[in-house]
Specification:
The complex is a heterodimer of chains A (497) and B (143). Chain A has 16 helices and 25 strands. Chain A is an alpha/beta fold. Chain A folds into 2 domains: 273 residues, 3-Layer(aba) Sandwich (Aldehyde Dehydrogenase, Chain A, domain 1), CATH 3.40.605.10; 190 residues, Aldehyde Dehydrogenase, Chain A, domain 2 (3-Layer(aba) Sandwich). In chain A, helix 2 runs antiparallel to helix 4 and helix 2 packs across helix 7. Chain B is 73% helix and 3% strand. Chain B has a two-stranded antiparallel ribbon. Classes of the chains: A alpha/beta (497), B mainly alpha (143). At the A-B interface, helix 4 and helix 10 of A face helix 1 and helix 2 of B.
């Protein structure tokens, strides 16, 4: 199959989108490199405090008129946006592949998941309704109304450059708030293209702003009294120690999603034919750079033959994954996002060897890349056997295509191993037993649970949950919980005399 | 060439539809007596592409999250559309019929393989199979 045409053909100079204007930043400039080809595709600014404050001000000024805009009129902007996203579906997907490295099918999946959030937020006239009760006392009625709060900050990671801001953004603006989005400077192009479509969809100026940058932008959002809440996805240390803590100090609402170390628990009664492909995409899809990726493969039972046969099939399937540039349609795994990330993953693999785990598939070497591309950011799938729960390999997030294989004698032991993890994001069991599945679902402390599902990604109308060190906050992104997060409940009790 | 990704299979569907549409347009020009009917088939092919792409873009996440992969051989379905010299109308139509049979096989195989993990894709493939079977009957009548 031929290589699909690139969406970004010439070098892009990324600007900020503030108050409906495309503004050049005075900050320092950083390169955005296509991790597969090594080509420079964009230059992104690291914006200043003043520029971030200008975006917050634009959002604050837009808020009074936007909140009084009827919900039906607000969602008409979202309906137009949805239509524009469909029209530009392929371009948006190819941009993600170019700037992130994921395969074109993965990018299209990401685009679809993003659009689904816009679709759900289009239901705001219904979703935002309050509730009431007549005659709570003689002649007195009581009701709850939901009101927007003002300006929210959305801080996004590099691994889903298009979708993650859409877990929050559409709900925030549909409920009448205004937002300032900070994309990852590693992958700014998807949010820039989205902002162009926001503009085309006719959102009033200042409702949706984008400021590119790093820590200074984040600190400014966190310190600003005009920011009523933050939706963040990133590292656990930042989520807990910076975002969650600072939001607590400044009285902001917060959704802070952190890291993960997900277990895929294999019961001997699983459907092996269906489980192996699900594991391949779980562990190696998006090149393992996903907070819902499988990280630990936990095989249950004393049957050594089952263990050996199952693991052999996993290794064979992993060896057959086609690696290359995601715009080549035959490719099943792209590069990791950057050279630094590759080096960090390689260091984790080396640390795993030192810990005593057995590397039975070495993704550092011996893999083939389809096409003629620099190997700078490419890695093959790696599989470790003989991993113990106490090893760093089993405990800490690697965020790359690395599988650690553990064993447990019983489901009870497996559940205990899962629950000993500091993370609780997306754990799954593969079994044909309803009893085992129910036990797993009931006892495992994890925000998202999969039963014969390798990537436990909630649909837009369900919350994207998380527990333990994977999530800090109460309400979550997506669906009804996002609507609650972005609105204040006001109770009215009335008696007419 | 072996095809595994959804993107590859959808691209092949697009290619088969476009190539066969080109052939129908050419035949419509060469044999004006049945030109309208043949041109309609070309138009129907364009609709098929839209239908397949819409289904694919709608459910691609299911395919990825379920770890779905096709296993198809593209050579089994591709065909030569170059006009043969001095071909009479019946031969030209016979060629089109054999191409249609290949395309039906492609969609049937793709529907069968995607049955387990995606709801909309096999349905869209089967709808195209149904349309093409009706088309085959019409082509026989045009002989």
């Amino acid at each position: 199959m031929a290589l699909l045409e690139e969406a970004i053909k010439d070098l892009k100079i990324v600007k900020n989108y503030i108050g409906g204007e495309w503004v050049e930043s005075k900050g320092t400039i950083q390169d955005v490199i296509n991790p597969a080809t090594g080509k420079l595709i964009a230059k992104v600014p690291i914006s200043t405090k003043d520029e971030t404050e200008a975006a917050i001000k634009a959002a604050r000024e837009a808020f009074p008129a936007w909140r009084t805009t009827p919900p039906l009129a607000r969602v008409r902007c979202l309906f137009r946006l949805k239509e524009l996203l469909e029209q530009n579906f392929e371009e948006l997907s190819r941009i993600q592949t170019q700037e992130h490295g994921k395969t074109i099918d993965e990018s299209r999946g990401e685009t679809r998941r993003g659009i689904e959030n816009v679709e759900v937020a289009c239901g705001i006239p219904t979703l935002m309704m309050g509730y009431n009760l007549e005659d709570i006392a003689s002649g007195i009625d009581e009701y709850v109304i939901r009101q927007p709060l003002g300006v929210f900050g959305i801080i996004a990671p590099f691994n889903f450059p298009f979708m993650i801001p859409l877990w929050s953004g559409p709900y925030a603006v549909a409920t009448g708030n205004c937002i300032v989005v900070k994309p990852s400077p590693e992958v700014p192009n998807s949010q820039m293209r989205l902002a162009e479509l926001i503009e085309e969809a006719g959102f009033p100026v200042g409702v949706w702003n984008v400021v590119n940058g790093e820590r200074e932008v984040v600190s400014t959002l966190l310190e600003s009294p005009d920011i009523k809440g933050i939706a963040f996805v990133g590292r656990t240390s930042t989520a807990r120690d910076v975002i969650y803590r600072k939001c607590g100090e400044t009285g902001k609402r917060v959704i802070a999603q952190g890291a993960a170390k997900n277990f895929m628990v294999i019961m001997p009664d699983c459907n092996v034919e269906r489980t192996i492909p699900a594991l391949m995409t779980s562990f190696f899809g998006n090149t393992g750079q996903r907070c819902l990726s499988g990280a630990n493969l936990l095989i249950v039972g004393e049957d050594d033959q089952f263990y050996k046969d199952f693991l052999n099939r996993v290794v064979e399937a992993a060896k057959n994954i086609v690696i290359g540039y995601g715009l080549d349609e035959s490719v099943q795994m792209g590069p990791v996002r950057s050279k630094d990330k590759k080096e960090r993953i390689v260091a984790d693999i080396e640390s795993g060897i030192k810990e005593g785990a057995k590397l039975i598939l070495d993704g550092r070497k011996g893999f083939k890349v389809t096409g003629n591309y620099p190997l700078t950011c490419f890695l093959g799938p790696s599989i470790f056997e003989g991993v113990k729960p106490e090893m760093k390999l089993a405990r800490e997030e690697i965020f790359g295509p690395v599988m650690s294989v553990l064993r447990a004698s019983t489901l009870d032991e497996a559940i205990n191993i899962c629950n000993a993890s500091r993370y609780g994001n997306g754990n799954a069991i593969f079994t044909s037993s309803g009893k085992s599945a129910r036990e797993f679902q009931y006892r495992v402390v994890s925000g998202n649970i999969g039963i014969n599902i390798g990537i436990v990604a909630p649909m837009a109308f369900f919350p994207f949950s998380g527990m333990k060190d994977s999530f800090f906050g109460i309400l979550h992104t997506q669906g009804q919980e996002a609507v609650r997060f972005f609105t204040e409940s006001k109770v009215v009790i009335q008696r007419w005399l | 060439m072996r095809l595994h990704t959804a993107s590859e299979v959808i691209s092949l569907a697009r290619e088969l539809e476009s190539e066969s549409a080109k052939l129908y347009r050419d035949l419509a020009r060469r044999y004006p007596k049945n030109g309208d009917a043949l041109a309609l088939f070309a138009k129907e092919n364009e609709g098929n592409i839209v239908q397949i792409e819409r289904a694919y873009y709608g459910v691609i996440t299911d395919a990825i999250e379920g770890g779905f992969a096709f296993d198809m051989e593209s050579d089994e379905y591709t065909f030569d559309t170059s006009p043969e010299k001095d071909t009479g109308y019946p031969d030209a139509l016979h060629k089109v019929i054999s191409i249609e049979e290949k395309i039906v096989k492609f969609y049937s195989d793709a529907a069968r393989q995607s049955d387990t993990l995606m709801a909309d894709i096999p349905r869209a493939f089967r709808q195209v199979v149904k349309k093409r079977e009706t088309r085959l009957t019409k082509l026989m009548q045009l002989l």
